[in-house]
Amino acid sequence: MTPAPDAAVDVVVIGSGHNGLVAACYLARAGLSVEVVESDDVLGGAVSTVERWPGVRVDRGSSAHVIVRHSGIVEELDLASHGLRYLDCDPWGFAPAPRPGDDGPDGRPLVFSVDLDATCASITDACGPEDAAAYRTFVEVWGPRSRAVANSFGARPSPGSLVRSFWPVGAPSGGRPRTPGGEIAVDFLGSGDALLDRWFTSERLKAALAWFGAQSGPPMSEPGTAAMVAWVALLHDIPPGHPVGGSGGLTAALRRRLEADGSQVVLGDGAARLLVEDDGSGPRAVGVETTSGRRVHAAAVLAACHIQVTRQLAGDAAPPALATADPPLGNGFGLVVRALTDAPPQYPGASEDESLQGLQLLCTDRADLAAAHGDWGAGRLPRVPVPLAMCFSASDDTLAPEGRHVVTIWGQWYPYALADGSDWDTLADAEAARLVAAVDRYAPGFANSVQRLYVQTPLELERELSLPRGNVMHVEMGLASMFGFRPTPALSGYRVPGLAGLYLAGASTHPGGGVSGNSGRSAARLLLADRRPAARLRAAGVRGIRRGVRRIRSA
């Protein structure tokens, strides 16, 4: 195939993940010409869907979209007009009855619906009226706080923006004082486990909420994880969603939006190196050279890829802030099993409408989470795998033929590098079987329904999705790597000090991993703001020339 010719655009975006595409769409909407370059032949990075088996569409990364539905991005870019249709995950969470032999009350499942009354009724049946009442108050108290977190995710992580986001939470409102600031600080800086212990008594309820919160990465025993648990308060307003046709429906709609505004995505020809020039005022990024040797010249470059990749692309031109960037990547994150089955999971005491619409939180005791994280920290496989399952083919018939289903099983805290030196390619099938068996313990008969498996070990996630060490969040999501510390303090503002014209976005930057689009939008806004002084100077120059012409004509 003949390589495309060199090009000149206003902005070149590196990476077609959802943050890169979001940034490109905002820039193109503002009238700039944009080209997105992507090394993969598949659009969307970890927000993508492929035909894994004949007639069966399977997500490669994310499946349930949470944060982006609270960001306003879908509405601002009018993605519904470009083919995006979300199916609400309602109920958004399901926690099964205790397994045979486990301690527990009457064996009723927990069903978390958008309807708060229905959720509290389920908690009453499974855990008792005291915890149901406490949950209702929890949602009332943490709803405004979680909205403040969502607002902080949508802004640059400067001290001023954080104060503006969080100040109303502790300020008096309508003559009625809210929670004292000191208590708020304890809550936000404390652990998710401590927060749950203060509010609830049922271990089953605490385990389900902790497993939801832990999807961000850290265990709920770590400081600063309270807000990750408390995000559930917002799900009673807008639940997670699954795009019709798979997770890649979001990035496909973004591409259509981008093309409608006159810009483009080029797949299979990613950036090989950053083009840097020094115009006398210092080094500036002026485009990229792709793997085919094509050059895309631009006034600015927006790198929506892993921070390590950005550093490599800059090479010797990387300024100290980038050359020395070494944020914590961790030792892997999780293992994913994609199963083709002839039936969805069937949980005793629950209908498919209750159990299959959202996240199947298959954990009834936080001790299992603590043990899995402890094994991960020691470089071992979890002695007791803890699964989270999803089966969106139950509500979306575009994913699999009739009589077939796609079940995603997520097992968290699987080490990328194992302490005993074991090879993941050798272990993959056995670990997949253990995760399938872990689901079967709650949904008897599930293992017999499995026909095909596709296994994404931490090593395979690195290979397939270009995620170093298999970390789907790029950089660890602990308190020391968030807000103004992400990916490093020097790089936290979406710019690269010492290299003008280069902007950063993606999971490596604030607010981190997950499907949100916030970093793409924030980086695009910053880039546009930086262009305005130059645009004003150019406009002033044109006006001056016109005035001079008028004077000459009138002379």
What does this molecule look like?
By secondary structure, this protein is α/β, with parallel strands linked by helices. Helices cover 38% and strands 17% of the residues. It has helices at 18-29, 68-71, 73-76, 116-127, 129-153, 159-170, 181-189, 192-199, 203-213, 226-230, 248-260, 307-314, 320-323, 352-355, 366-377, 424-442, 446-449, 458-465, 518-554, and strands at residues 7-14, 34-38, 49-53, 56-59, 86-88, 93-95, 110-112, 241-243, 264-267, 271-278, 283-290, 295-303, 334-341, 359-361, 387-390, 405-412, 450-456, 502-504. Strands 1, 2, 9, 10, 11, 12 and 18 form a 7-stranded mixed β-sheet that branches. Strands 7-6-14-15-16-13-17 form a 7-stranded mixed β-sheet. The longest helix has 37 residues, at 518-554. The N and C termini lie far apart (60 Å).
